[in-house]
Amino acid sequence: EPDDELRRDVIMQLICHGRLDTQSFGERHGIAFARYFAPELKALVGMVADGLLSCDGEALAVTGRGRLMLRNICTVFDRYLSNVPRQHYSKML
User: Model-level pTM?
Assistant: First the structure.
C-alpha cells in the first residue's frame, strides 16, 4: 500500500540517518509532508519540547538524547503501532 511505503521511508530515514528532510521527501513522494503527516507532527510536539527531536519545518532531526528514544519517535509514524488519531471514513459493506 502506498501509505505503508511512505511511512516505511520516513522511519528508515530517521533510523539510518537520524534526520529527514521533509521538503525533499515530499517532492520525492509527491506529497505535502506537513499536511500528509499533520497528526504525526502534532504528536511529536512533546518530544520536541523534551529535546528528543528538532522540527524546523524543513527537517526532522533526532537529537543525541533522542537516539535513546528513537523507537518511540518512529512509532509515531507507524500506523499499526501509533496512538495518533486518524480520520476514519465509513465503508460500504
Answer: 0.83
